[in-house]
Amino acid sequence: MSVTDRRLRRAARLAGLLGAASLLAAMVWWRRHPSACPYSQRFWLEPPHPLITRARLREILEPQLGERILEIGPGTGYYTLPIAEWIGPDGRLDILDLQQAMLDDTMSRARERGLQNITPTCADAQHLPYPDGTFDAVVLVTTLGEIPDQDAAWREMARVLKPTGRIVNGELFGDPHWVSPGAAELRATAAGLPSHRRLGTWAGYFGRHELGHIPKAAG
Ligand SMILES: C[S@@+](CC[C@H](N)C(=O)[O-])C[C@H]1O[C@@H](n2cnc3c(N)ncnc32)[C@H](O)[C@@H]1O
After folding, report:
1. CA 13, CA 101: separation in Å to the nearest integer?
2. How high is the pLDDT of residue 115?
3. What distance in angstroms lies between residue 154's CA and the mean position of ligand 1's atoms?
4. CA of 88 to the centre of ligand 1 (A)
5. Separation of 75 CA from ligand 1 center, angstroms?
6. How far apart (Å, rounded) are the C-alpha atoms in residues 104 and 208?
7. Each residue of 197-209: pLDDT tens digit?
8. What is the pLDDT of residue 219?
9. Is the CB of 98 under 6 A from ligand 1?
10. Whose CA is nearest to atom 2 of ligand 1?
């Protein structure tokens, strides 16, 4: 191998290392500074979501016809449209997002599919604009970690839930704002929403929480 080839290889290795280090630094920064995924980066939300599939969400959420459900952080509606179909025309799906552009995008997709049971609201998950005990279920997927005060969000979700309601939170490892199952369960339990069931592994899971559900003792 010539001296030039060796230098080129060394330069390529160095560039690779610098790239990996910058990516790692960006991931750490994102985790320490929770913020909403900008609308300009919505391309992340388009491809099929591995592990946290729509079928798995349906299995753990157990949506019923006619229910009133809240989805926090719908993005461009990957889960929104199927949820609206599962609860049927007599059900009502409220979607709440910090970004009006995400809501507009989702609503335009819903219109294309002929769905008329979705109500959008631009607001912050830390201060939900709904009365106590409004919803049969609350759903949020790859959203919790973007919320600066997750404890406030859990308290608000508990407040707007009917006493018999459930919350389903979905997380995918690799998302810079991924929340581990343990961290989610600790915070949810502190808000009075202990874990009822989990589908999947730490790499991609849906956790279901219910008000006042007493988890089975270990052993
Ligand atoms: C990564 S996207 C997930 C979108 C969708 N759930 C999915 O999995 O395809 C997170 C969404 O949560 C919204 N979001 C972030 N922080 C929020 C907050 N504090 N209140 C309401 N929505 C928020 C973002 O605007 C974005 O639409």
Report:
1. 41
2. 98
3. 15
4. 24
5. 5
6. 28
7. 999 999 999 999 9
8. 43
9. yes
10. 75
> How many other β-carbons are positioned within 10 Å of the β-carbon of residue 201?
10
**If you write DSSP's letter for every residue of 170-208 in order, what string do you get?**
EEEBTBTT---HHHHHHHHHHTT--EEEEEEETTEEEEE
Alpha-carbon Rg for the chain, nearest whole angstrom, is 20
> Which spans in 42-180 are helix H?
54-61, 80-87, 100-112, 150-160
Residues 133-158 pLDDT 10s: 999 999 999 999 999 999 999 999 99
pLDDT number for residue 45? 87
Fold of 39-210: Rossmann fold (3.40.50)
**Partners of 37 in beta bridges:** none
Task: Indicate the average pLDDT of the chain.
Answer: 92
| pLDDT above 50 (res 131) | yes
Cα 80 to Cα 58, 99, 174, distances in angstroms: 12, 15, 22
Please say whether the dihedral angle defined by the alpha carbons of residues 192, 143, 71 and 54, taken in this order, is positive or negative: negative
